[in-house]
């Protein structure tokens, strides 16, 4: 009886040590940034932030645009969700649902360029309005552009979250509604709405937080005095005004705002995408009427065009650029190499941190008698997923910029700091990929590995790696893709310290070289697509096993 106990302890201690190492590494990285922010400025910074009328205006706009973006994203998603739920079997349904997942993993710059090509001054929409005799085109910049961009990225998220809830409704409900002869409006009122009402608060809260911490979209479509959020104001204070004190005040204000929002989110029911939106069919009888089919077809067509036209615009505009010339330029080659190296370091770091956190939490959860220390460690590891929302990338980048600026080593360490910030940004997604696979694997092989007396290294090499290789590669590829498309941390450090592909695209846009920007965006998109294909499950069995736990 002593051998299994000794073996179990020998397996458990390295996992707990790994979890502790993850916590210490994240705490050190975040702590240095916060120390640089708060050193000697904590009270004065907060008072300055709330007392400055300009900052109050920025705060008001930040919350107002987030509220409007959330309202439009959720409000427009409702009819799309109802149409998708009413029509469970039409040609291309599964591809439309898969299209809904593209903006969530798309580099923000690529989506922004596509939206400018559609809604910009010389875009398709304004050309069509001009052909109809309307002299005042739609202005894609300012609040209007920010709202369009946020809806483009967040409407698919709201749709998937709400559709997941509707697909869990028992089939008997739909049969009963058909037997009672309920109209589509009555079906929505008595069946769909009670289900959606439990999901909408959590989904809206998540989208609101994403819009509050939005940086790249506001930088491109807003950025002026009347359309600036806190994160963009931090960037402007550091890069244009050279005012570190003001940047610190704004960073403290951002932490305060995100902290309050996270507390509010914790009181709302969580909304999760269970992955059943891959095409599951269930009986619906209220969508068979010709008029309802026509309306649903119109809604789904408009939603599909809203998502696919900007993506197609990026491809068309990118192909019109001289791609061979862009690829041959030394600036592109250096930016691409820097981006790939930063993405690789970021992806490996995020994947290893996620594995350490998942392994430690799994070991703690399997213990029968958990002490207070283990419980606190499990809670702390679970909270890492919310850290990037509580302390956004702009705040971390500001803290590290100030810390490195005082030592004069900004250029030397900027790539490593950007990789670390991007790793924290990708950590929640890497955990979502690894945790279900790891828990299932350990439940199947844990007792057998202990009975064989395998060491930790043997278990990792012979038992764990063959089964967890695919989730590891998926987490790595997804983390690298997130890092490749990120502009937030890079922008604060400046192009003189680090130049990546997103920074090069943004510089091309600022120099009015839109054709080059479109070509670079297409090349960046191709790199991200290649990573997505490399990280995709290689077999149908793996796909089916991971689907219930996917985002």
Rg on CA atoms, Å: 25 Å
Strand proportion, as a percent range, falls in: under 5%
Mean pLDDT: 82
Poorly predicted runs are 1-7, 274-280, 538-551
**N-to-C SSE string, H for helix and E for strand:** HHHHHHHHHHHHHHHHHHHHHHH
Percent of residues in helices comes to: over 70%
Tally of DSSP helical segments: 23
N- and C-termini, Cα separation: 42 Å
Structural class: mainly alpha
Largest beta sheet, briefly? none
Query: How many E-type strands?
Result: 0
So what's the overall shape?
globular
Tell me what the structure shows:
With 551 residues, the protein is mostly helical. It has helices at 2-38, 42-51, 53-86, 93-105, 108-119, 124-131, 143-166, 171-179, 184-212, 216-221, 230-239, 244-266, 290-320, 323-328, 330-366, 372-390, 393-407, 410-451, 456-484, 488-493, 501-510, 514-535, 540-546. It has 23 helices and no strands. The radius of gyration is 25 Å and the shape is globular. The chain starts with a helix and ends in a 5-residue tail after the last helix.
